[in-house]
User: Which sequence fits this backbone?
C-alpha cells in the first residue's frame, strides 16, 4: 500500500492538480481520492484554490482605472462603472428673526403664490440638490460642486421612495405636486468635462 | 463551486472589445494571484522598483495586449493559434491562459532582476549556457521555471520547497562543471523530491556562494576567470566615482553633496552584491542625508542618482564581461 502511494505521488502532475481544483470530473478516481486524502500537495492545491477564488472575485473600479492606464487595449469607461450612491441630507437654515409686528398687508405671502425651497448636501458637499415647491408643483435641481456633468442618474426621494430617472442635470426634474423629502439619494455615473 | 466565466469564447473573439476587456481582467487576476503566492520572492523587487503588486502584475502582462499595425492583439493571438496541443475546450483555454500569464510574469521578474542586479544577470547567462551544454532543459511548474533532464516531458511528483532548497549544503554547488548533475542527484537521492531545480533559486544560491561562478569557464571563451566579486565591485564603483567627480568639477554638485552620493552608491553596491537593491533610491539617499524631503530629493538629486546607478550597473556588467 505504501509503495503504491509513493508511486501515485510521483505520478501527480501539474495538470492533475489543476483538474482536481477546476475540473475534478476529468481526474481519475484513483488520483482524486489520493489528492483528497493526502497532504502531500496541499500547497499546490492551495495555489489553484486561491486562483479559482481570485478568478471569481470582482475587481474594484480603482483596479479597473489602473488597468486602463497601463494597458491601452483595455477600455474602461468611468460612466459604466458600478453605480455610485450618494445620500444627501437637508441643510437646516435658521429662520430669520423678525423684529416687531408685521402687518397683514406687508406679509410675504400676501397676494403671491407660496414658494418654499430646501437645500440638500451630501457629507462631502460635492453634490447639492435644491428642492423648490410651488403651489401645486415642484422642481428639483441637481448640481455638482466639481466640474462634472451628471448623466444618466436616478433621484430617489425618501421616505416615499419615489424614483425618477434623468438623462442629465442640465434641466431640473419637474413634478406636478409638492414634495417634502427627509433625504434624497442620487444613483449616478459621472462624465468629466473635457 | 462552479466557475462562472468562459474563456474559450473570449479567445475565439479577440476582435471584440468586450472579449479583450474580460481577458485583460482575467489575466490581471491570474498575474496578481501568482505574485501574491510568490510574495516573499518578489517583495525585494517591489521595494527596489517602488511599485505596487498590482502595477507589477499589469506590467508583466501588458505586452500580451499590445495591438500590432493591423489592430490585432498580436502576441496573445499568435500564442493562442500556435498552442500545442490546440485549445479545444474550456479546460484547455484556462490552462492556456494560466501558462501564458505565469510565463509572462516570470519573464518580467527575471528581466527586473537582471536589470537591477548585474550579478544575477551574469549567473543567469552562465546557468542557461550550462543547461544547453550539458543536456538539460527548462520546464515550468505552477509558473516557476525548473531545470530538468532533457528526456522529461512533464514534471510530476513533489517538487522541492524553497526552504529545503536553501538547506542544500553549499558544497553541493561547488563543482561548477557538474553543478546541475550534482544538485539534481542530491535532490533525488538525499531528499524525497522529484529531480527538478528551481532556476531562480539556483541563481540566488550560486550568488550566495560568492566568487565560485566567476572562477569557472567563461561561457563563450572557455577561459578561466579568477576575478572575485570584491574586485569587480570595487573597480565598477571607482569608475562610477570618477563620473561623480566630473559633476563636482562642472559645478553641478558641491563637495559635500559628492560625499553623500559616494556613500549612497557604496550602500547600493553593497546591496547589489548581497542579493540586489532592497529599497528605493530616496530611501538609500536619505540614510546619508538626514531630513531631506522627498520633494527636494526629486528636484535636486533623483535624476543624478538614477543616472549614476545606471552607470554603476553598466560598469559592473562591463567588469563581468572582461
Assistant:
Amino acid at each position: 500500500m505504501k509503495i503504491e502511494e509513493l508511486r501515485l505521488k510521483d505520478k501527480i502532475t501539474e495538470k492533475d492538480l489543476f483538474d482536481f481544483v477546476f475540473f475534478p470530473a476529468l481526474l481519475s478516481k484513483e488520483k482524486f481520492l489520493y489528492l483528497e486524502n493526502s497532504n502531500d500537495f496541499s500547497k499546490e492545491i492551495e495555489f489553484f484554490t486561491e486562483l479559482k477564488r481570485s478568478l471569481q472575485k470582482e475587481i474594484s473600479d480603482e483596479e479597473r482605472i489602473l488597468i486602463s492606464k497601463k494597458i491601452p487595449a483595455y477600455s474602461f469607461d468611468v460612466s459604466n462603472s458600478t453605480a455610485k450612491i450618494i445620500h444627501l441630507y437637508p441643510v437646516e437654515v435658521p429662520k430669520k428673526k423678525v423684529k416687531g409686528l408685521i402687518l397683514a398687508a406687508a406679509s410675504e405671502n400676501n397676494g403671491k403664490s407660496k414658494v418654499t425651497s430646501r437645500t440638500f448636501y451630501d457629507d462631502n458637499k460635492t453634490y447639492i440638490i435644491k428642492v423648490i415647491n410651488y403651489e401645486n408643483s415642484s422642481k428639483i435641481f441637481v448640481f455638482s460642486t466639481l466640474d462634472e456633468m451628471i448623466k444618466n442618474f436616478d433621484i430617489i426621494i425618501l421616505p416615499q421612495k419615489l424614483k425618477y430617472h434623468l438623462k442629465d442635470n442640465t434641466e431640473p426634474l419637474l413634478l406636478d405636486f409638492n414634495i417634502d423629502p427627509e433625504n434624497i439619494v442620487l444613483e449616478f455615473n459621472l462624465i468629466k468635462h473635457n | 463551486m462552479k466557475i462562472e466565466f468562459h474563456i474559450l469564447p473570449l479567445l475565439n473573439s479577440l476582435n471584440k472589445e468586450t472579449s479583450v476587456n474580460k481577458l485583460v481582467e482575467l489575466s490581471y487576476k491570474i498575474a496578481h494571484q501568482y505574485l501574491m503566492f510568490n510574495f516573499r520572492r518578489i517583495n525585494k523587487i517591489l521595494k527596489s522598483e517602488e511599485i505596487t503588486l498590482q502595477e507589477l502584475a499589469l506590467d508583466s502582462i501588458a505586452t500580451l495586449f499590445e495591438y500590432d499595425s493591423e489592430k490585432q492583439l498580436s502576441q496573445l493571438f499568435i500564442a493562442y493559434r500556435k498552442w500545442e496541443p490546440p485549445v479545444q475546450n474550456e479546460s484547455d483555454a484556462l490552462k492556456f491562459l494560466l501558462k501564458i500569464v505565469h510565463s509572462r510574469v516570470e519573464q518580467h521578474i527575471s528581466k527586473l532582476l537582471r536589470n537591477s542586479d548585474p550579478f544575477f544577470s551574469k549567473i543567469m547567462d552562465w546557468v542557461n549556457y550550462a543547461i544547453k551544454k550539458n543536456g538539460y532543459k527548462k520546464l515550468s511548474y505552477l509558473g516557476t521555471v525548473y531545470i530538468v533532464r532533457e528526456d522529461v516531458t512533464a514534471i510530476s511528483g513533489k517538487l522541492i520547497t524553497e526552504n529545503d532548497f536553501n538547506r542544500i549544503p553549499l558544497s553541493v554547488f561547488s563543482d561548477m562543471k557538474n553543478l546541475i548533475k550534482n544538485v539534481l542527484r542530491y535532490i533525488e537521492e538525499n531528499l524525497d523530491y522529484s529531480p527538478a531545480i528551481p532556476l531562480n533559486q539556483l541563481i540566488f544560491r550560486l550568488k550566495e556562494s560568492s566568487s565560485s561562478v566567476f572562477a569557472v569557464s567563461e561561457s563563450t571563451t572557455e577561459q578561466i576567470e579568477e576575478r572575485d566579486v570584491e574586485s569587480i565591485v570595487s573597480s565598477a564603483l571607482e569608475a562610477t566615482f570618477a563620473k561623480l567627480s566630473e559633476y563636482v568639477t562642472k559645478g553641478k554638485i558641491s563637495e559635500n553633496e559628492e560625499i553623500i552620493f559616494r556613500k549612497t552608491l557604496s550602500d547600493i553596491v553593497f546591496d547589489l552584491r548581497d542579493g540586489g537593491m532592497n529599497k528605493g533610491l530616496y530611501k538609500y539617499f536619505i540614510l546619508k542625508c538626514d531630513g531631506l524631503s522627498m520633494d527636494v530629493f526629486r528636484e535636486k538629486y533623483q535624476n543624478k542618482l538614477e543616472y549614476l546607478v545606471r552607470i554603476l550597473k553598466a560598469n559592473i556588467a562591463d567588469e563581468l564581461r572582461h
